[in-house]
């Protein structure tokens, strides 16, 4: 069984949306987790950022949010009275000032629309992911997840949030990845596919240097990388999945034929990698041949990118 999580870029452009439809033809893919609509371009804004702006008093964000959902509906051909649905959400927020619920509605609406597009049953996270005392209520959440999968065969779930004491609990930014990891864990999935806009996890942060995607990693490698500058997936994913048999596959929705990066508790890194951590006035560079074999270099913010470029030759 496969659980898929689709990042914001996956519902922002028609090409990606069509690829999601093709992926859903594989009936081994039984769980689908969606982030809120992302950016069409660097100049665009994500729905979540627009909702944050609205909660901070930017009334103009309402129309921008509406336009993004209108585009998604046009791409998918799904019919939803989106203007009235959004008005209900905004009016409820004005009454309750429940910011967590407001910010969660980006995922809720995106997943709902995509469930209609894929013709797969929508199950809101309110009915699936339960927290108590700040921790996942595993037994209750697992029972509900298994129930809905058994009842419907396949399910679509909004990411980024859970429920705790009857209220919305938001994960930190990028928390759709956490939702995908939790659903994979609860359903005993064999593979958790994390679909994004890049072809896996690279040997060096692409913003610093063009390098090769890493074919395989261990969860220990992933923990180190995500604690530093590798933010392709949320750092909590490794903590959730490292003790399970679930394999995490990070792939590009724009190149679904590519293998991406496969991560498990048993796999070892297929190549070395370079990561870095920035402090107030310095940068630590980690050159890793394997998780237990790495060298730390101290650098400055002005020079560290050039030093990483020079160090990359050691990985080739």
Give a short account of the largest sheet: 8 strands, mixed
The average pLDDT is 94
**Distance separating the two termini:** 36 Å
Task: Give Rg in angstroms.
Answer: 20 Å
Count all strands and give the number: 15
- Please state how the strands of the largest beta sheet are arranged side by side: 3-6-2-1-9-11-12-10
Strand content: 15-25%
Helix content class: 25-40%
Structural class: alpha/beta
Q: State the helix count.
A: 10
Overall geometric form: globular
Element order, helices and strands?
A: EHEHHHHEEEHEEEHEEHHEEEEEH
Q: Spans with pLDDT under 50 lasting ≥5 residues?
A: none
Attribute tags:
single chain, 316 residues, alpha/beta, 8-stranded mixed sheet, 4-stranded mixed sheet, 10 helices
Describe the 3D structure:
This protein starts with a strand and ends in a 5-residue tail after the last helix. With 316 residues, it is of the alpha/beta class. The strands form 3 sheets. Strands 3-6-2-1-9-11-12-10 form an 8-stranded mixed beta sheet, sandwiched between helices. Strands 5-4-7-8 form a 4-stranded mixed beta sheet. The chain has 10 helices and 15 strands. The model has no long low-confidence stretch (mean pLDDT 94).
